Fold:
Amino acid sequence: MVLTRRFRIVAAVLVLGGLVAGTAAVAGVTGDKPVVSATPTPAADSTQTAPKADAAASDATATDRVAPAEAAEPVPIDAQVQAQVSYMLAHWTDYNTDGYGVITDNDCVNFTSQSLIERGWTMDDQWYAEGIGSDFDTSSPWISSTAFRDYVAQSGRATALTDDQRDQVKLGDVAQFDWDNSGDRDHTGVVTRIEGSGDDIQIYYAGHTDDTDFRSVDYAITEKHPGATAYYWSIP
Structure:
C-alpha cells in the first residue's frame, strides 16, 4: 500500500512537471513578437530614382540664345545704275510725258526702255523711240515685252537668268514675266530692291501699267498671277 501510494505521488509530480514545462515552452513561442523595422527595406526588384527636374526650368537654362546677326553693309551701286533706279522711282506714277509718249494700258516696256537710256544705253535701228504725245514713234522692242526679250538676246546687251538664279540678279536688272506660261513675255519692270541671301532672296521691281515702285516678284507670281514665271536680264 505504501509503495503504491509513493508511486502515485511521484507520477503526479512528473506529470505536473511536464505540464509546467510544456506550458513554459508554449509561452516562449507565443510570447515572442516579430520585430518591425522602422525603415522598410526596398524589395530586391524595386528601383529608386531621383525626382525629375522641372522641364520648363531645365529648358530655360539649357541653351544660350544666339544674338541676332548684324545687318550687312549696303551694297555699293554704280552711278549709272543709281541714275536708272532713281528714274524709275521718280516716274513710276509721275509719267515723263515731257520726254516720251505713253502707251495706254501697255506702258511697261516703254518705261523700262526709258530707264535704260538713263543708265547709259544708246538707241540703235532696232531699239528706239522718238517724239512725244500723239507723235510718239517707237520700234517693237522698245514697247513690247516679247520683242524686247528677243532684241536683248540677239544683241547680247544682257544675260538671261531664270528665277532659280536670283543670287545673280542685281539692282537695275530687267525683270520679265510670263503670266500664263505660254512662252512669250507679258510684263516688264526694273529691279529696285533685293533682300536676303541664299535660298531666301526677295526681289522687288518697279514698272508701269500695273504702276509700282517696289512690287515683290514672289507676290506677282503667286498671289497676283498664281503659277506665273519670272525671268531676268542681267545687265553688265
